[in-house]
Amino acid sequence: MIPVAWPIALGAILFMIGVAGVLLRKNIIVMLMSIELMLNSVNLNLVAFSYHLGDLRGQIFAIFTITVAAAEVSVALGILIALVRNRRVFNADKMDTMRG
Hints:
Elements: H1 5-24, H2 28-53, H3 57-87
Helix pairs in contact: 1-2, 2-3
């Protein structure tokens, strides 16, 4: 059996990589991927604790988190496609207004 500290350490490392990607990168697609990495690291911790405690609530909550993440990505990609079509920029610093 794997100790519960290993998946938690892996989840913490993945979360820190995601935070660094959001804070240091300016490309919006990379930022969205970093947010997804952070959500998946949280899901890894939820499933690890759920397995360790013998309770299914963490795994059920992880499924709901995956569903919300999929909805978030679809909305964000829709906004990104609209911005790229109108302004032709991928850099987050150049998108300062939401005017039509």
